[in-house]
Amino acid sequence: MASTPRRLKRSGLTMPVVTPRFINNAWHRGCDYINMDLEDSVPPRLKDVARNLIRESISVVNKGGADAVCRINHDLMEADLNAVVWPGLMMVNYPKAEYAHEIQRMDGIITRLEAERGIRPGTVEIGANIETAVGVANAYEIVTASSRVMDFGGASGYDMSRDLGVEMFVGFDQFVYGKGEVELAARAAGREPHAVPFTPNITGSVSDPDRAFAEADAARKCGFRIGGGLHPAVVEPQIRGFAATDDEISDAMWVLQEYRKLDRTGETWVQVDVASVDREGSPRPMAADSYLGRHRVIDRYEAARAEELLQWRSRCQERDQEKAEAVARVNAAEAAESPG
Amino acid sequence: MTGSPKVRRSWLLCPVSHSERVSDAPAAGGDVIVLDLAEFVAEAGKPAARESLSELLVPAKSTGAEVFVQIDPELMLADLSASVWPGLDGIVVSRAETPEQVAAIDAIISDLESRRGMLPGSVELVLCLETALGNHNGYEVATASSRTWGLSLGRADLVMDLRPEPSGEIHLMQYLMQRLVTLASATGTVPLGAWWRFPDRGLLATPANTLAAAQRGRAIGFHGSFCVQPDQVPPLNAGFTPPESDVAAAHGLCEAYASATASGTGAVVLVDDRVLTPDIVRQAANTIALAEACSTRDRSKAAAVEGIPMPVP
């Protein structure tokens, strides 16, 4: 069963913290999180400038309800952490993770900074991203190096393709082994795998809303719950793609209803003829997911999935409401401040 | 072919708590009947299922099938105590996760074999790596006991909640299947499984889909698979038996290679636009040997149905 993350991360935008128009507009994009970048999108000569912008940017990006996240530099970990671990920061993204001792060192620094800066212990999560072959080889040790590692994935993308010497945009999955190792490590450690099913992308587009929706929809149906992107055009399609449909909710309610019946029989599973239970006004099974065309299997696995889906919808609704209220508060405050 | 030459193409799971399923199972013609205590028996029914088990072992073999029992490792002592009796061929360990767990199971079986007059080491193990941790620890788990004959992913799609991708492939399964086949080869064990695709779930599929899954499974290295319904047994037997066309082609390759090398052509031979090397010929010989072993196994089961006792090859 999909494990639900502590904080929802259906959609997120990664942006250079040194670009004010991105940061200043981020709060009304509707994302679950904003990933302020100190790494690849910030040139070396601007690293110091960028670090000094993070503290004040946290409250800028999260005023619309998004969680503030920061991607630091692998080789500048300590300096970056000192600049980013401030109240309001939800997670530090650590790129090119290769060894457990790196994560343990991060954990130690974050623990010290939380104490010094009045942040409740354990608040700041670590997102560890695997982008090299060495990272793949050490995946399990990395994900288990700290209980702060709540987001674990990678083994694909530009850095991985460069490290392996493989092409980036092809019509097949060139990262099957690495992605499998990383996802298996996350699952074995009981952490949320940050993964998506393979969907071909031969253009490299980062702003295609149809593709963003298709990928989020496929990810949700596979049980994944984490998304993210680079362009504002993909935020809404991602949120929509990660939302359970009305049909799926009706189906989940039907599955649980049937499972409760099964529970009373002493059986562990049953096949239900979908046609015989399709009544108006009642929860309905989805024909598209049928086994043998018209039969559905009901067992503890289907019940667990249904239960998780209902909880997921509820959490999505709560999160959307939380963000809407935050945006409304900002709008009201700005209206009150504006002359006339 | 890796490991033991035993032909175990179809493994029909039967919940011990369902007497009619158990009594009907031999008629399905499976190579192995798996009396299940773990997956398909409700918690409340487990004590009664264990009590009845020892009397089910011999009748389950009436049509020549071998008999394994699937146990729950969390309940290993009770499940093994109920299962390890003369007539048992092996234990299927559901949700195998750690080498310590497998070593503990091995020790209990050894004790029971000793106390119940069974040949030491006669009970084999098939380990189902159905959880992420079990797969992660696969090599250590597979080498924790010399009894281990086979490895399977079991119902990993359900236990690990792996769902269909847009392509119809079950997410992560291609990686896990290749990993399991590699692990099995590295540890000298036999990989069991079939390449299931949506809408198949939890070893359950139509006979046609089961045949296709078995054929794909054989192509990537599996030697047999578990199933849930009796009508899946014939397609598993068929799908894991080399087709006659493959066997005829294999004979042709072996004969052509023998003829060419006898005439002094050398170790690498060009026959009908194909380069033949010793490895290719060995693979062809394996196909022939497997086909013969399957044929022998089928004759043995047919003899059992006729009441003629024959040893399991």
Textual characterization of the structure:
The complex is a heterodimer of chains A (340) and B (313). With 340 residues, chain A is α/β, with parallel strands linked by helices. Chain A folds into 2 domains: 12-241, Phosphoenolpyruvate-binding domains (TIM Barrel, Alpha-Beta Barrel); 246-321, no CATH class. Chain A contains 12 helices and 9 strands. In chain A, helix 2 links the parallel strand 2 and strand 3. The model of chain A has no long low-confidence stretch (mean pLDDT 91). Chain B folds into 2 domains: 10-239, Phosphoenolpyruvate-binding domains (TIM Barrel, Alpha-Beta Barrel), CATH 3.20.20.60; 244-307, no CATH class. Chain B is built from 12 helices and 10 strands. In chain B, the strands form 2 sheets. An 8-stranded parallel β-sheet of chain B has the order 7-6-5-4-3-2-1-8. In chain B, strands 9-10 form a two-stranded antiparallel sheet. In chain B, helix 2 (46-53) links the parallel strand 2 (32-36) and strand 3. In chain B, helix 2 (46-53) runs parallel beside helix 3 (76-83) and helix 3 runs parallel beside helix 4 (99-115). The model of chain B has no long low-confidence stretch (mean pLDDT 93). Chain A binds chain B through residues 1-2, 140, 176-177, 179-180, 183-185, 187-188, 197-199, 214, 218, 221-223, 266-269, 289-292, 297, 299, 301, 304-305, and chain B through 15, 39-42, 44-45, 131-133, 135-137, 158-167, 171-172, 174-176, 179, 199-202, 204, 206.
